[in-house]
Write a structure and sequence with these properties.
This protein has 4 helices and no strands. By secondary structure, the protein is mainly α. The chain is rod-shaped.
């Protein structure tokens, strides 16, 4: 039994890990705490994110319709009217897609607690 204890002690001594710096553990724990604080802050703002996303979508639709009406009433070349209308609608669609992606990432982060904040 004594030999086994001695072998076990030697094995345990071999598994010792030396940390590269004296404050290594404190820095790692500090960075983990900062990440957790940022995650909690992002999750607490979820209600605001959804509210302002919906408000922005409604205002964007209204602005897009207003611009389309102004373009239709403008006395310009019909081809330019078409291209201007398409440009307004595409820019609105791209913005909506971008904001949907951000909102989905926030919702996914809340569902999966281990999701890293980047």
């Amino acid at each position: 039994m004594d030999k086994q204890h001695e072998k076990f002690s030697k094995v345990m001594q071999m598994s010792k890990v030396e940390v590269p710096f004296d404050d290594f553990e404190q820095r790692i724990m500090g960075s983990i705490a900062a990440l957790e604080k940022n995650r909690e802050k992002a999750l607490s703002n979820k209600k605001y994110a959804i509210t302002f996303f919906l408000l922005g979508t409604v205002c964007g639709i209204m602005l897009n319709n207003y611009l389309m009406a102004k373009i239709e009433l403008a006395d310009i070349n019909p081809n330019l009217k078409n291209y201007s209308g398409i440009a307004c609608q595409i820019s609105f669609a791209v913005l909506i897609c971008f904001f949907c992606l951000q909102l989905w990432q926030l919702i996914y982060m809340q569902q999966k607690k281990h999701y890293p904040l980047s």
